[in-house]
Sequence to fold (132 residues):
Amino acid sequence: MTTKSAVPGTVRAAGVFVAAEGAAGVVFAIVLLVAGSSGPGRNIYGEAGYFTVIFGGVIACGIGLLLGKRWARGPSTAVQILLLGVAWYAMGPSDRPELGVPVAMVCVAVLVLLFRAPSRAWADGYAQEDAK
Fold:
């Protein structure tokens, strides 16, 4: 076992997807803030702040994966599992498959990337050659 291993491309690709999810969430919070402040009697600052904090953490996880930080793999995996639930609800009870299907596809892609053999070996600290 080696202590320092190169970051596999699968982890970096997952980092790009996770960071993009976080950025989409922050954009949603900004849109929510702008749309909510335009109407009378609507106070949504707390909700927009909540989404900003949560998705700011998702961006941090995506950047962590891009930089090869092992700590980012666990939270990124948890976020994907939670977003799969959101995607299922969008496809089923909300009857919005045009939103749910793309979210589900991205989540499954990230999970596959994070659980490929090179990604698992990297997370365990093995050299990439040991993962083959």
About this structure: The helical segments are 9-38, 45-66, 73-91, 97-115, 117-124. Residues 9-124 form one domain.
